[in-house]
Amino acid sequence: MSIQEHAVVWAEIPVTDMKRAMAFYGAVLGVELVENNDGPNPMADFPTSDPKKGVAGHLYPGKPAPKGTGNTIHLAVDEPLDEVMQRIRQAGGEVVSPAIDIPAGSFFYAHDPDGNSIGLFNYGT
């Protein structure tokens, strides 16, 4: 057995309204999600600098877990977390924790408009 470069390779976030979710995540992350119909379901991909390496993910039409009870996916941001918190609220999400400092950086927990648990993480570099 060998240790992989990344333990997580892909994340999927179920949403009830693709257009609303694309607008929310686009506004919060300051990126444009790309519609992708190459798989078995419609998707909206999070952009990544190298799609063949690293960690990426997408939104897909699905049934989210009850509010705040599903897995938490942490998404990277470059901006100060207080600015990202404002964007979460303005885009229809809910901030559910203060910023938390850890050795690798800082993050906070939030819910998207479907109640999915997400973390917004800044490496602090």
UniProtKB/TrEMBL annotation:
<dbReference type="InterPro" id="IPR004360">
    <property type="entry name" value="Glyas_Fos-R_dOase_dom"/>
</dbReference>
<feature type="domain" description="VOC">
    <location>
        <begin position="7"/>
        <end position="123"/>
    </location>
</feature>
<dbReference type="InterPro" id="IPR029068">
    <property type="entry name" value="Glyas_Bleomycin-R_OHBP_Dase"/>
</dbReference>
<protein>
    <submittedName>
        <fullName>VOC family protein</fullName>
    </submittedName>
</protein>
<dbReference type="InterPro" id="IPR037523">
    <property type="entry name" value="VOC_core"/>
</dbReference>
<dbReference type="Pfam" id="PF00903">
    <property type="entry name" value="Glyoxalase"/>
</dbReference>
<dbReference type="InterPro" id="IPR052164">
    <property type="entry name" value="Anthracycline_SecMetBiosynth"/>
</dbReference>
